[in-house]
């Protein structure tokens, strides 16, 4: 199985893309809804949670780990790669590759949670890949609760997005990375506020393609994956709202199962 | 020591009032910042967290427990009272007593987190105390993140408060209970939006008076309390933002200490 974890239900935007690109592979999802959100929390706490999530997925049969959470990818992906003997994919590398490809002026903006932005993980990866690039970032901590409340088209959401985007717009970025799995749900508003000339990049599509390519090249791993169309969605806490958001993202009734919920 | 716990730093609004009314008593605070917020989470998860927080405070020397979190008070206070052999105070009873006292038309509104409102704990306590009362409630899940971001005077916050308050205003309430320890920080905006004729009630002052009265009547408990002016503020996760919010609420530099942070 392909194990995917996120701090909550936002990572389902990644799963949606995996469904499109990697049809037929079993997905095992874990959303840490009992401890969500990660983005406002400290580094050590996020690392501990990420290790526990990975252990749970591997125990359940995951042969590949996808960290479908930007905060956990920024803070914990190196440790997860070192600690566990399975291929680990995170959401930063594919988004950075895509951004570098599309940015002509080499002025790249990043929006994400406070923990993601503070980690400077995106900035470092961009600077490693190309030189003479200007990176500007702004944390947008209110966007996750707005999305989780389903305030997708509200006037207040548009105003808050505008406020968060404005400082980046003045820096004349030509590419904007959505460094949080919740943000693609606000893509239309974000595109409108940042302007037509700015390319908006998220990691879902690029990540799915990267994973597909990996499976073609690594048949010994590919062989170990289950290939039925039944997927399991574990969460550490179930509420009506989490259920509603999960259904909204995947656009179908998702059967959330309680798991890994010992405190 | 008087042990106080909350899902995060919002409970410090209660501590602030305890400082005023119960000068000289040692306060031992625990804010579960690694798992905050509780208000969007499920009942069983909140109960488990509350039990663990109480165990931690008692182990650290607390002789009285104050549940300074409306969500935990609504969902877990009965269980905490049964499980532990110490006096337990919660924030619902004092707010309800005050509301009943000031409401003339017996039309009471309640705003709180989704978990608090869904629990119907306030509604039940009001109905137990008086008859012929009409209770109207509305969950306001975005107010906690807005306060934690320090968006106290922003236009967006005013608009969101207005939207949440409007359905209660149309019910012609004469009293509004702030059933979340974060909301007193938005009291000015809430008062403005709900109108002059509505009495806005929070539990902090009434709770502190109730506790004072209890200590006068129960000298055997009072004797066991430490009486120095040094207080300890434990949190399960420390970030700059939590530190900033804590300082903002208590209007001084608060020394946050990491504790009870095993996941």
Question: What do you see in this structure?
Answer:
2 copies of one chain form a homodimer. Chain A is α/β, with parallel strands linked by helices and 263 residues long. The first copy, chain A, is built from 12 helices and 10 strands. In chain A, the strands form 2 sheets. Chain A has a 6-stranded parallel beta sheet. A 4-stranded parallel beta sheet of chain A has the order 6-5-7-8, with helices on both faces. In chain A, α4 crosses α6 (121-129).
Cα separation of the termini of chain A? 25 Å
Topology pattern of chain A, helix = H, strand = E = EHEHEHEHEHHEHHEHEHHEHE
Q: Which regions of chain A are unreliable across 5 or more consecutive residues at pLDDT < 50?
A: none
- What spatial order of strands do you see in the largest sheet of chain A? 4-3-1-2-9-10
**CA gyration radius of chain A, whole angstroms:** 17 Å
What average pLDDT do the residues of chain A reach?
A: 95
Instruction: Please report the two chains with the greatest interface, counting residues with C-beta closer than 8 angstroms to the partner's C-beta.
Output: A-B, 32 and 32 residues
Tally the beta strands of chain A: 10
Question: What's the quaternary structure here?
Answer: homodimer
Structural class of chain A: alpha/beta
Shape of chain A: globular
Instruction: Quickly count the helices of chain A.
Output: 12
Biggest sheet features of chain A: 6 strands, parallel
The helix content of chain A is 40-55%
What amount of the residues of chain A lies in strands? 15-25%
């Amino acid at each position: 199985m392909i194990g995917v974890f996120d701090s909550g239900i936002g990572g389902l935007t990644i799963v949606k893309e995996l469904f499109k690109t990697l049809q037929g592979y079993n997905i095992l999802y874990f959303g840490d809804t009992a401890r969500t959100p990660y983005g406002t929390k400290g580094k050590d706490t996020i690392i501990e949670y990420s290790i526990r999530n990975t252990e749970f997925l591997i125990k359940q049969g995951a042969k590949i780990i996808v960290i479908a959470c930007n905060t956990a990818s920024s803070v914990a992906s190196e440790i997860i790669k070192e600690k566990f003997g399975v291929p680990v994919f995170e959401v930063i590398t594919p988004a950075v590759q895509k951004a570098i490809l599309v940015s002509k002026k080499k002025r790249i903006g990043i929006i994400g949670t406070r923990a993601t932005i503070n980690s400077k993980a995106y900035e470092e990866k961009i600077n490693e890949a190309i030189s003479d690039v200007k990176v500007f970032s702004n944390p947008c901590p209110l966007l996750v609760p707005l999305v989780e409340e389903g305030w997708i088209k509200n006037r207040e959401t548009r105003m808050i997005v505008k406020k968060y985007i404005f400082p980046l717009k003045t820096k004349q970025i030509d590419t904007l990375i959505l460094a949080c799995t919740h943000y693609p749900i606000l893509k239309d508003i974000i595109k409108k506020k940042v302007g037509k000339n700015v390319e908006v990049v998220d990691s879902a599509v690029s990540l799915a393609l990267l994973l597909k390519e990996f499976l073609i090249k690594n048949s010994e791993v590919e062989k170990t994956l289950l290939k039925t169309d039944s997927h399991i969605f574990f969460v550490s806490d179930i509420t009506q709202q989490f259920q509603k958001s999960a259904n909204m993202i995947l656009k179908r009734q998702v059967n959330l199962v309680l798991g890994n919920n010992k405190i």
